[in-house]
């Protein structure tokens, strides 16, 4: 049976060129970048070159990049680092109800410590309202953290508008760009963000590596203590092989971005037209025109998500019902709850298809047909 992997929003397969770079670096650049001998200096040179690639991908400077163990650490460093560094200026934080749990759980912890957090609602397209944001903003707001693109439904948020509005406000502006990075052009100057989180494994790089962009003069309290790596902002010997492999994945992603956007939009159109032709009752969650190109979240009427996932898996399709970080949980998706309400049918019948490297048009046609077959069998 041909297994088709359509869960790239959860994680992506490592690109062959990235694997080669990882192995090559392990063999040839194994020195500690903090060492002053030739072996260490060579590792430092390679690391600096990779950091420059990462920085250029978002229109930043190399010194603005803090290497982390992934998106979760980057989000945590942004949120806790800002809250603790700026608590003398206020205690109010603004976020949204549909953030990744790396953001939501961090905010919940800060609430227990006495910080005041506002969770902005979203509409049925999964987007926050600028007016709601403006009404929530206070003089004592020290942090605004809104994701760039949602990981479950792909909804793109009005980050640039929020950033422009905050230009004359004291609040630090952070965006979780983990799901959007590599799939859409990102410029920290255009977005007017102070902090931006990224992860490698979403763009065919290795797991366990990511970065946090920090705008110059943006205050941030370190959360790890030890050596003086990352300009004293994040202690720990740098993972040189993974950083170089990450940079290789970034280069590939930047070079193929336009091609991927067109390809994935075509994938969406194939799936939607196939289901329409076969008389499947469904609705797309979110506006296809304002979502990330690789995510298609669909509600199939008259189905149960657990039975649907099991049957699709047996048919050879690897798909998801939401965030991979809550896999195995019986709790409904917090994103869909925010979009449709606590008792909505969408909570019990929605599937996320997400595309990426290695997926072909034939795969998509086969996946759409198999999904229709499963639905015709399950729907009474």
From TrEMBL:
<feature type="domain" description="Aminotransferase class V">
    <location>
        <begin position="4"/>
        <end position="364"/>
    </location>
</feature>
<keyword id="KW-0479">Metal-binding</keyword>
<dbReference type="InterPro" id="IPR015421">
    <property type="entry name" value="PyrdxlP-dep_Trfase_major"/>
</dbReference>
<comment type="similarity">
    <text>Belongs to the class-V pyridoxal-phosphate-dependent aminotransferase family. NifS/IscS subfamily.</text>
</comment>
<dbReference type="GO" id="GO:0046872">
    <property type="term" value="F:metal ion binding"/>
</dbReference>
<dbReference type="GO" id="GO:0051536">
    <property type="term" value="F:iron-sulfur cluster binding"/>
</dbReference>
<keyword id="KW-0808">Transferase</keyword>
<dbReference type="GO" id="GO:0031071">
    <property type="term" value="F:cysteine desulfurase activity"/>
</dbReference>
<dbReference type="InterPro" id="IPR016454">
    <property type="entry name" value="Cysteine_dSase"/>
</dbReference>
<dbReference type="InterPro" id="IPR000192">
    <property type="entry name" value="Aminotrans_V_dom"/>
</dbReference>
<keyword id="KW-0663">Pyridoxal phosphate</keyword>
<dbReference type="Pfam" id="PF00266">
    <property type="entry name" value="Aminotran_5"/>
</dbReference>
<dbReference type="InterPro" id="IPR020578">
    <property type="entry name" value="Aminotrans_V_PyrdxlP_BS"/>
</dbReference>
<dbReference type="InterPro" id="IPR015422">
    <property type="entry name" value="PyrdxlP-dep_Trfase_small"/>
</dbReference>
<keyword id="KW-0408">Iron</keyword>
<keyword id="KW-0411">Iron-sulfur</keyword>
<dbReference type="InterPro" id="IPR015424">
    <property type="entry name" value="PyrdxlP-dep_Trfase"/>
</dbReference>
<protein>
    <recommendedName>
        <fullName>cysteine desulfurase</fullName>
        <ecNumber>2.8.1.7</ecNumber>
    </recommendedName>
</protein>
């Amino acid at each position: 049976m041909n297994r088709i992997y359509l869960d790239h929003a959860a994680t992506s397969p490592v690109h062959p060129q990235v694997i080669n770079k990882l192995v090559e670096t392990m063999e040839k650049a194994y020195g500690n970048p903090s060492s002053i001998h030739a072996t260490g200096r060579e590792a430092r040179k390679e690391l600096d070159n990779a950091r420059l690639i990462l920085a250029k991908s978002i229109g930043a400077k190399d010194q603005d990049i803090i290497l982390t163990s992934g998106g979760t650490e980057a989000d945590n460093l942004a949120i806790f680092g800002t809250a603790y560094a700026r608590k003398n200026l206020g205690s109010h934080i603004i976020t949204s109800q549909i953030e990744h749990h790396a953001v939501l759980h961090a905010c919940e912890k800060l609430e227990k410590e006495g910080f005041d957090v506002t969770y902005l609602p979203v509409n049925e397209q999964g987007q926050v309202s600028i007016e709601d944001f403006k009404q929530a903003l206070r003089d004592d707001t020290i942090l605004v953290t809104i994701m760039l693109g949602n990981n479950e439904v792909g909804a793109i948020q009005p980050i640039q508008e929020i950033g422009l509005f905050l230009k004359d406000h004291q609040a630090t502006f952070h965006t979780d760009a983990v799901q959007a990075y590599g799939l859409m052009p990102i410029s920290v100057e255009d977005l007017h963000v102070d902090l931006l989180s990224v992860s490698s494994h979403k763009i065919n790089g290795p797991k366990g590596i990511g970065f946090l962009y920090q705008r110059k003069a943006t205050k941030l309290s370190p959360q790890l203590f030890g050596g003086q790596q990352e300009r004293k902002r994040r202690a720990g010997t740098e993972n040189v092989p993974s950083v170089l492999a990450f940079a290789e994945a970034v280069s590939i992603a930047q070079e193929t971005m336009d091609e991927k956007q067109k390809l994935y939009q075509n994938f969406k159109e194939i799936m939607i037209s196939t289901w329409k032709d076969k008389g499947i009752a469904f609705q797309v969650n979110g506006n296809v025109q304002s979502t990330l190109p690789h995510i298609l979240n669909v509600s199939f009427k008259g189905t149960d998500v657990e039975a649907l996932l099991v049957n699709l898996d047996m048919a050879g399709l690897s798909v998801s019902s939401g965030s991979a970080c809550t896999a195995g949980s019986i709790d409904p998706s917090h994103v869909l709850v925010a979009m449709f309400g606590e008792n909505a049918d969408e909570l019990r019948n929605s599937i996320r298809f997400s595309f990426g490297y290695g997926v072909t048009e034939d795969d998509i046609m086969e996946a759409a047909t198999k999904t229709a077959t499963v639905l015709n069998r399950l729907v009474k």
